[in-house]
Amino acid sequence: MATVPVNEQSFALDIVKTDDDGRLNRSGSLISASAHIITAVIGSGVLSLAWAMAQLGWIAGPVSLLIFSVITWYTSCLLADCYRFPGPLEGTRTYTYMGAVKSQLGGMKYTLCGISQYTNLVATSIGYTITASISMAAIQRSNCFHKEGHDAECHASTNMFMIIFGIVQIIMSQLPDFHDLSGLSTLAAIMSFAYTLIGIGLSIAEIAGGKDVKTSLTGTVVGVDVTGTEKTWNCFQAIGNIAFAYTYSSILVEIQDTLKSSPPENKVMKKASLVGVATTTSLYMMCGTLGYAAFGNKAPGNFLTGFGFYEPYWLIDFANVCIAIHLVGAYQVYTQPIFKLVEDSFSKKMPESGFITKEHPVHIPLYGVLQVNSFRLLWRTAYVIVTSVLAMIFPFFNSVLGLIGAVSFWPLTLYFPVQMYISQAKISRFTFTWTWLTILTVSCLIVSLISAAACVQGLITELHAFEPFKFVS
């Protein structure tokens, strides 16, 4: 029997290094995980925070932001410990959020988790398509206002921009998986910082201009700005918008699955969550409070596209370009788990099918070799087309984002992480820890349901005067 020299064996091992589950070595780090989180968290949500502050006022607005940030960080730490089963350090990897729920809880909760997670991911991709198109349309409108004057009738259809965004996503969706997104996520994170800081800077300039705006401890004034009914609905819709601003738990396990096994993934993920949530909360607080101070109770629903700002028009254009680029990356971060679920399912059912499993190497200038798969090309293209069409049918920024936040925050950010923690840590019923976690879960459920109802009411109101595929920004 032939033997392989030791040096050749070492060389072979250097070529293919695998982790404890037999998969290729993961290379993710604290920096890449933090970038993924910031890319996922700072998105459409930050643009609506000035409006949310206007509805809630100087007390409830900042307090709501802090409460949601603390809840998100705490439950993210609980979820990080559930990546491996049965223990956080030496158990079997679960790879996905649904996998973690299946291992820790199983049964009906696993089914409910799948419905909640993937509904949220699809809805978020629709929401990002809406936001990106509004930002691209805002560039056209900004240039029009600069040329024709601030009182000009400058409108733009968002449909064309949704199609452009969809074409870009069809191309980007051919990146095989999460592990290929680190560069895109880093770029997207830089873009999110850029447009957020521009918004903060423009708000400071607006405040320094000394314009007379009305703000209050309780936000919009009943009988002056809104009716009593509108005030109630808007407050709960604003809470939904804030919840959406912190939505990333549904992809936390997938992000954690990109990390190197040493140091332990759960410890790195907890640090990344702290970095991500602390960074975004600081920026959110500045965006919300400074935006409210700049525009008062008349703050627009989207403070970079609602034209609270007109000049310098080139800076507003640049900010909206940054939003569009960021959302290209954020869309991918949120859709990769959906792609993986469908493709893995078909691969298991039809492992002999070349259409589903065969990869075709394609050389791309400045990129290298991209592995193209026929099924992946067809399925991902179809997904992007469907989400783009749905975005054209329901292009309502605040109501859509608020509804996504209200519906997804409770099950994905709170309920399942808490239930998995209770199961893994074997916490007995009616103990102190079990009691306060239950109170937290029930309280957030009530708030989420009321917020969701408010957003549905907002959608119904907007649909009364809307014709599909004819939305004008």
Automatic annotation (TrEMBL):
Keywords: Amino-acid transport, Auxin signaling pathway, Membrane, Symport, Transmembrane, Transmembrane helix, Transport
Pfam families cross-referenced by the UniProt entry: Aa_trans
Source superkingdom: Eukaryota
Predominant location: membrane
Annotated TM spans: 33-53, 59-80, 156-175, 181-205, 272-293, 313-334, 377-397, 403-422, 434-460
Entry-linked InterPro entries: AA_transpt_TM
Cell location: Endomembrane system
UniProt key word Nucleotide-binding: no
Domain Amino acid transporter transmembrane: 27-460
Membrane topology: Multi-pass membrane protein
Chain's role: Carrier protein involved in proton-driven auxin influx. Mediates the formation of auxin gradient from developing leaves (site of auxin biosynthesis) to tips by contributing to the loading of auxin in vascular tissues and facilitating acropetal (base to tip) auxin transport within inner tissues of the root apex, and basipetal (tip to base) auxin transport within outer tissues of the root apex. May be involved in lateral roots and nodules formation.
Family of the protein in this entry: Belongs to the amino acid/polyamine transporter 2 family. Amino acid/auxin permease (AAAP) (TC 2.A.18.1) subfamily.
Protein name in the entry: Amino acid transporter transmembrane domain-containing protein
Species assigned in the record: Salix suchowensis
